[in-house]
Design a protein that fits this description.
The chain is an all-alpha fold. It contains 5 helices and no strands. InterPro entries: DUF4148 (IPR025421).
Length: about 140
């Protein structure tokens, strides 16, 4: 590259940075001014906040407990949960083993074996099945 191209690239870069900075200031992205508004926290206030967070279990102690799990309060009683489980079991929504997962809820009553055989016979008689279909 010759010196003329380098000078043009340098001038273009400086001009674009000035435009970006002025655009950021016009859009309210004035970090130093926003950060200086209000009263800064004292060291004692920060330490108090840290102690409260530790007491609530919000500060992780290592990679094993990150992210911090904050338990929510359940609105259901034990009896309500047991009733919901019994209802799910009655509807066949609880898997019995890994083969049953994921559970697919039935879409209403299914046809019986006799109904399926009758439909197959009707389709054969009507010629709706090819030789390779059905048995």
């Amino acid at each position: 590259m010759n010196r003329k191209n380098i000078a043009i690239a340098l001038i273009a870069a400086v001009a674009s940075l000035g435009g970006v900075a002025s655009n950021a200031a016009e859009n309210g992205n004035n970090y130093p001014e926003i950060a200086s508004q209000g009263q800064p926290l004292t060291r004692a206030a920060v330490l108090t906040d840290l102690a409260q967070a530790r007491a609530q279990g919000l500060i992780p102690h290592g990679d094993a407990d990150y992210p911090v799990y904050v338990a929510s309060v359940s609105t259901k009683s034990r009896a309500d949960v047991k009733a919901d489980l019994a209802q799910a079991r009655a509807q066949g929504l609880v898997p019995q083993n890994d083969v049953d997962y994921p559970i697919i809820a039935s879409q209403g009553p299914s046809a019986s074996r006799a109904d399926v055989k009758q439909e197959l016979a009707r389709a054969r008689d009507a010629g709706e099945l090819s030789v390779s279909q059905g048995s």
